[in-house]
């Protein structure tokens, strides 16, 4: 994305200039802030919800929302060509911004509807991740539909989007399911419309089994982590079967060393739960704590606040590469492997469901299919042949 530059000064230091620009950061449009080191500016930025310190780029990013654009002096006006097609945005100094997000390309009236829908979802306490996903998918759908009145959109229009965009481009079934869910929620609870919601069916889920690591493979990966902090993060995910967001949201006060439990607060489905606290993990976390001394969150970034989701994914990626494990390993693979190893060790599926935080036992039952213990004990009829 071409930057849109402006200059601001710190209220406490007229010699400190902030360069603010619109930038694509990990697939999202963010406001990039660059300035000479100034503690007063840093403290001001840290007070902004959603701010991110990028170790790689050595700069701060804050969410691209109207009040922050105004605060940092960024003005972006969308322009259309003679055919009505949006070609980019122009700021007050005439800089052209390309690669606009789908939301930025929408007509103003549609944007207003989606922003109202965001507020509705926030009022109903949908997670920020769900809100972002739904708004992104709806933006893609409405951009495809052009200048159609949202109240006149029908199920046939959504089916046409599925055919022309999702199926033609061989996008995943899960993507189609989220699109359908977002459209159904938008038209079910938001405003009057002509949509026949009953005609919108989610496609069947793909019947796939998760990739599972052996214990020796997990051991190799954990030993290959770069330092004690990286090893502690990956070990905690495997030891407790955590989701990535649950790990990054953990606070020091959530560790109950006396009861050998770790409290997971308001996880997926807005549920609290407890997970077991391994003795080996205690020793590892104690060593990590003495070296890094986190203040609030168990794992913090260099600029304070929770550790970056992208950074922990990179930590695993490097560890897997150094370990020599050739499987397609993601953070969730450690969670799948934890659950499978518990089942192979004879732990009742109901306890595994509780530890993982699954709402339905059907979700947990997948680990009865990937467990190799019983399947591996089946004698092949080939063994009875003299060949």
In short:
The chain is α+β, with helices and mostly antiparallel strands and 387 residues long. Helix content is 45%, strand content 15%. It is globular.
Plain-language structure description:
45% of the residues lie in helices and 15% in strands. It has 17 helices and eleven strands. It has helices spanning 39-46, 66-71, 102-105, 108-123, 128-145, 155-167, 173-189, 215-223, 228-240, 244-249, 279-292, 309-323, 331-344, 349-356, 361-364, 366-370, 372-377, and strands at residues 6-10, 13-25, 28-34, 52-54, 59-63, 77-80, 86-90, 96-97, 255-256, 261-267, 271-276. The model is unreliable at 1-16 and 76-99 (pLDDT under 50).
Secondary structure topology:
Elements: E1 6-10, E2 13-25, E3 28-34, H1 39-46, E4 52-54, E5 59-63, H2 66-71, E6 77-80, E7 86-90, E8 96-97, H3 102-105, H4 108-123, H5 128-145, H6 155-167, H7 173-189, H8 215-223, H9 228-240, H10 244-249, E9 255-256, E10 261-267, E11 271-276, H11 279-292, H12 309-323, H13 331-344, H14 349-356, H15 361-364, H16 366-370, H17 372-377
Antiparallel strand pairs: 1-2, 2-3, 3-5, 4-5, 6-7, 7-8, 9-10, 10-11
Helix pairs in contact: 4-5, 5-7, 8-12, 9-11, 9-13
Please list the strands of the largest sheet in the order they lie side by side: 1-2-3-5-4
The low-pLDDT segments are 1-16, 76-99
Structural class: alpha+beta
Q: Which whole number gives the mean pLDDT?
A: 78
Termini Cα gap: 65 Å
CATH level 1 class label of the largest domain: Mainly Alpha
Number of beta strands: 11
What is the H/E string?
Answer: EEEHEEHEEEHHHHHHHHEEEHHHHHHH
Proportion of residues in extended strands: 15-25%
- Per DSSP, the total helix count is 17
Rg, Cα atoms, Å: 25 Å
How many domain regions? 3
Instruction: Predict the CATH topology of the largest domain.
Output: hpI Integrase, Chain A
CATH superfamily of the largest domain: Intergrase catalytic core
């Amino acid at each position: 994305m071409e930057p849109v530059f402006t200059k601001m000064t710190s209220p406490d230091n007229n010699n400190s200039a902030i360069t603010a620009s619109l930038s694509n950061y990990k697939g999202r449009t963010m406001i990039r802030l660059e300035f000479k080191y100034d503690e007063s500016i840093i403290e001001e930025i840290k007070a902004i919800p959603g701010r991110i310190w990028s170790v790689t780029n050595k700069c701060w990013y804050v969410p691209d929302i109207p009040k922050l654009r105004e605060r940092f002096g960024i003005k972006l006006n969308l322009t259309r060509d003679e055919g009505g097609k949006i070609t980019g945005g122009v700021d007050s100094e005439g800089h052209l911004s390309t690669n606009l997000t789908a939301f930025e390309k929408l007509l103003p009236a549609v944007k207003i509807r989606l922003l109202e829908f965001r507020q509705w979802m926030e009022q109903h306490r949908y997670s920020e991740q769900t809100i972002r996903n739904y708004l992104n998918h709806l933006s893609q759908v409405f951009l495809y539909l052009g200048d159609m009145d949202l109240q006149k959109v029908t199920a046939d229009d959504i089916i046409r989007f599925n055919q022309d965009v999702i199926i033609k481009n061989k996008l995943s079934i899960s993507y189609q399911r989220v699109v359908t869910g977002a459209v159904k929620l938008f038209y079910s609870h938001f405003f009057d419309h002509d949509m026949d919601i009953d005609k919108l069916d989610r496609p069947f889920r793909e019947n796939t089994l998760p990739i599972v690591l052996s214990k020796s493979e997990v051991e190799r990966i954990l030993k290959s982590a770069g330092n004690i902090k990286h090893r502690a993060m990956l070990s905690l995910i495997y030891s407790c079967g955590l989701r990535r967001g649950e790990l990054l949201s953990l606070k020091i006060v959530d560790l109950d060393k006396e009861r050998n439990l770790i409290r997971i607060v308001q996880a997926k489905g807005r549920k609290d739960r407890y997970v077991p606290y391994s003795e080996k993990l205690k020793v590892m976390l104690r060593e990590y704590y003495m070296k890094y001394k986190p203040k609030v969150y168990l794992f913090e970034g260099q600029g304070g606040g929770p550790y970056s989701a992208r950074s922990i994914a990179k930590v695993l990626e490097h560890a897997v590469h150094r370990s020599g494990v050739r499987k397609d390993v993601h953070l969730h693979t450690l969670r799948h492997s934890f659950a499978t190893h518990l089942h192979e060790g004879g732990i009742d599926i109901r306890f595994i469901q509780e530890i993982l935080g699954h709402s339905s036992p059907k979700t947990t039952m997948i680990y009865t299919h990937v467990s190799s213990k019983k399947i591996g004990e089946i004698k092949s009829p080939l063994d009875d042949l003299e060949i």
